[in-house]
């Protein structure tokens, strides 16, 4: 089969252990991102299989209608909100989405961002490269309040590390989330207002969906301390559009560390947060770790091979099977 792999930013796919399982198939890997449906359709017009990495590129109806040779989309991970499933079904394109990610790498990056921001590590590294010495006084985390918004797989790891550092861990979220936090011995904020107002470090770990889009409002951020740090390693649209940049300009919270953006990839330094001294930015590295890649892409390859064998797995639109 002809397989197109898009958005392989680091040219990592062909270096994974699982890649050898595609031996005998024609695999074309693209490293840059093309978001325009017409341009992308032209690029992958001969593909029978399309392998998607997370939600890096949407697959709308306009794209489905331009790919008559496409038989299957193999999605890394189970989140397929960026794929127009109905359009794929109409066009006879099978969508397989399976595999479970590892929450640890994103939790690890969250703590990397917290410590880097509070201790000004990137700035101090750059100062040394410039021949300078100590230009800042850092802030420790012991005894401070760590706010965890959504105590799930990632949030629970972040909370445990905060506890190990001697922080007061305070959680917020839906009833199920706060119930799990209480059961594990963590504090739940008295109110939403108290959660934002009392946190010295506040981390967002919510999945993006219709309910969580824009859930963090300007009014929430305005409650935060001028000394507080907000960290987002989840998805940018969880915060109301434009609210974070505005809040940082006004000094509440005083700092932000972010790994996610409204439009990705961010190229040519073209994002307002990159121009702010009180924002630390990384290029969506949360799940970008070899073990996670092996797991995600291994599952996606298994889906492709299962389809080739006539026994598709993790199918989101089984109606297509009736047409084949």
Which SSEs are present, and which pair or pack?
Elements: E1 2-5, E2 26-29, H1 37-43, E3 49-52, H2 61-64, E4 72-76, H3 85-90, E5 94-98, H4 103-118, H5 121-129, E6 145-149, H6 153-164, E7 168-172, H7 175-183, E8 187-188, H8 192-198, E9 201-204, H9 218-222, E10 229-232, H10 243-250, E11 255-258, E12 279-281, H11 290-308, H12 319-323
Parallel strand pairs: 1-2, 1-3, 3-4, 4-5, 6-7, 6-9, 7-8, 9-10, 10-11, 11-12
Helix pairs in contact: 4-6
Give a summary of the structure in a few sentences:
The protein has helices at residues 37-43, 61-64, 85-90, 103-118, 121-129, 153-164, 175-183, 192-198, 218-222, 243-250, 290-308, 319-323; strands at residues 2-5, 26-29, 49-52, 72-76, 94-98, 145-149, 168-172, 187-188, 201-204, 229-232, 255-258, 279-281. With 324 residues, the protein is α/β, with parallel strands linked by helices.
For the record, the count of structural domains works out to: 2
Largest sheet: 7 strands, parallel
Strand content: 15-25%
Give the CA-CA distance, first to last residue. 16 Å
The average pLDDT value, as a whole number, equals: 97
Contiguous helical run count: 12
Count of DSSP strands:
12
Q: CATH homologous superfamily name of the largest domain?
A: NAD(P)-binding Rossmann-like Domain
CATH fold-type name of the largest domain = Rossmann fold
Strand order of the largest sheet: 8-7-6-9-10-11-12
CATH class of the largest domain: Alpha Beta
SS class: alpha/beta
Q: What is the helical fraction, as a range of percent?
A: 25-40%
Question: Oligomeric form of this entry?
Answer: single chain
**Morphology call:** globular
Query: Any idea what the CATH architecture of the largest domain is?
Result: 3-Layer(aba) Sandwich
Radius of gyration based on Cα positions: 22 Å
């Amino acid at each position: 089969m002809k397989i197109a792999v898009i958005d392989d930013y680091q040219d990592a796919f062909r270096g994974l252990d699982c890649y050898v399982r595609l031996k005998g198939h024609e695999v074309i890997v693209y490293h840059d991102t093309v978001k325009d449906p017409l341009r992308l359709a032209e690029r992958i017009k001969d593909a029978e299989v399309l392998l998607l990495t997370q939600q890096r590129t949407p697959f709308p109806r306009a794209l489905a209608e331009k790919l008559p040779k496409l038989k299957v989309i193999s999605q890394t991970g189970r989140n397929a909100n960026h794929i127009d499933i109905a359009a794929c079904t109409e066009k006879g394109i099978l969508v397989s989405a399976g595999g479970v990610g590892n929450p640890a790498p994103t939790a690890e990056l969250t703590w990397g961002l917290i410590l880097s921001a509070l201790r000004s590590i990137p700035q101090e590294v750059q100062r040394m490269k410039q021949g300078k010495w100590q230009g800042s006084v850092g802030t420790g985390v012991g005894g401070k309040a760590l706010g965890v918004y959504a105590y799930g797989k990632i949030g629970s790891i972040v909370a445990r590390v905060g506890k190990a550092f001697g922080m007061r861990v305070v959680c917020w979220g839906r009833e199920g989330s706060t119930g799990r936090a209480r059961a594990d011995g963590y504090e739940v904020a008295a109110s939403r207002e108290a959660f934002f107002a009392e946190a010295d470090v506040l981390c967002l770990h919510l999945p993006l969906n219709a309910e969580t889009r824009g859930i963090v409002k300007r009014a929430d951020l305005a409650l935060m301390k001028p000394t507080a740090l907000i960290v987002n390693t989840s998805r940018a649209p969880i915060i109301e559009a434009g609210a974070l940049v505005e809040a940082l300009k006004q000094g509440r919270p005083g700092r932000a560390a972010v790994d996610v953006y409204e439009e990705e990839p961010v190229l040519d330094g073209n994002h307002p947060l990159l121009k702010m001294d009180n924002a630390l930015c990384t290029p969506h590295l949360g799940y970008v770790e070899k073990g996670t890649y092996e797991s995600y892409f291994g599952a996606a390859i298994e889906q492709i091979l299962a389809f080739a064998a006539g026994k598709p797995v993790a199918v989101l639109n089984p109606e297509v099977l009736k047409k084949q």
